[in-house]
Write a structure and sequence with these properties.
Layout lengths: L42 E5 L4 H12 L3 E6 L2 H15 L4 E5 L5 H15 L4 E4 L13 H11 L1 H15 L5 E6 L3 H4 L5 H23 L5 E7 L3 E2 L16 E2 H13 L4 E3 L7 H17 L12 H15 L1
Parallel strand pairs: 1-2, 1-4, 2-3, 4-5, 5-6, 6-9, 7-8
Helix pairs in contact: 1-2, 1-8, 3-5, 4-7, 9-10
Protein name: NAD(P)-binding protein
Pfam families: adh_short (PF00106)
Family: Belongs to the short-chain dehydrogenases/reductases (SDR) family.
Length: 319
């Protein structure tokens, strides 16, 4: 059978039928309707909390009255964030625990300190990640370090905390930070892309396993930020936010809105790429497999024009 050379048969009109296809409306960070799990007196643990999305999440959870355990490998920046959070909720409600998530013993120490201090975890934000230059057959050391943090770090945190969370009386949630690069796989940084593809698979598996557990009160959510102005996306001291990027605070508020609505996939737009564009790109990427097109056909010389036609037609149908 010849390969299809036309637009993907995964037609755009189905996009509007998904529960998460909604207009984003910013929440008040202290909104009591954020989520039943997110309320004053409960506990949030955030990895990668010293900067970017993790730091922004810490502030939003603190404003909602949660106790916060901050974990990151960069101790100095983590300490600074801890002091700022303590100014909101008091020193007794903040734990600052330098942690390399790629080392299981440090993750176990993090869990033990949290449970010793507060006895529970309501929100586990499995967020720590790094990026390093990579190539399909070069930069082996960078590949190793990216996978140590982005994949095995996520596994270490998930395997260490989730069993304890399952034995709690109160409901809880695990929010894992993924990436669009782990779904659409754009050329340029295969190590990061592959690591985030693994994170997507791990989090989907976690959600399924939790769902299959009778009476389970722990939910899982995959947070997929858009272009966000953070350290991992090239932010440097004093640099201005690009117009197309969202702030970390905007991304976190979007995440909280969709957690409240019960979404698993939290596909986040930005000022440059609206949600419909992301959805069409994801569907095209899936079509590479379903239709037997060349790998990464979106960037293939013989398929670029067809992809552009698909996007144009799809967006026209959605307008």
């Amino acid at each position: 059978m010849p390969l299809s050379r036309g637009p993907s048969p995964l037609r755009p009109p189905i996009l509007g039928t998904t529960p998460s296809h909604r207009r984003f409306e910013a929440l008040s960070p202290v909104d009591s309707e954020l989520h039943p799990v997110i309320h004053a007196g409960r506990v949030a643990v955030i990895t990668g909390a010293a900067s970017g999305i993790g730091r922004a999440a810490a502030f939003e959870f603190a404003k909602a009255g949660l106790k916060i355990a901050l974990a990151d490998v960069t101790a100095e920046a983590l300490e600074k964030t801890g002091k700022e959070i303590a100014a909101i909720i008091g020193e007794g409600n903040v734990l600052v625990i330098p942690t390399d998530v790629s080392k299981m013993d440090e993750v176990v120490r993090l869990r033990d300190k949290v449970y010793e201090a507060w006895g529970e975890v309501a929100v586990l934000m499995n967020n720590a990640a790094i990026s390093r230059p990579s190539h399909s057959w070069q930069n082996t050391e960078n590949w190793s370090r990216v996978f140590e943090v982005n994949v095995f770090g996520v596994i270490n945190v998930q395997h260490t905390f989730v069993p304890s969370m399952l034995h709690q009386e109160n409901p809880a949630m695990v929010i894992t930070t993924g990436s669009k690069q782990g779904i659409t796989n754009p050329p340029g940084n295969p190590a990061y892309n592959a690591s985030k593809a693994a994170v997507k698979s791990l989090t989907e598996g976690l959600a399924h396993d939790l769902r299959q557990r009778p009476g389970c009160a722990v939910s899982a959510h995959l947070f997929i930020p858009g272009w966000t102005f953070t350290g991992i996306t090239g932010r440097s001291a004093g640099s201005a936010k690009p117009a197309g990027a969202w702030t970390a605070e905007e991304a976190v508020l979007y995440m909280l809105d969709h957690v409240r609505q019960g979404d698993f996939y939290i596909l986040c737009p930005d000022n440059e790429t609206r949600r419909e564009v992301d959805q069409l790109r994801v569907m095209w990427a899936a079509g590479d497999v379903a239709e037997g097109r060349p790998a990464l056909s979106r960037w293939h010389a013989e398929w670029k024009n067809l992809f552009q036609e698909y996007m144009r037609d799809g967006l026209a149908e959605l307008s």
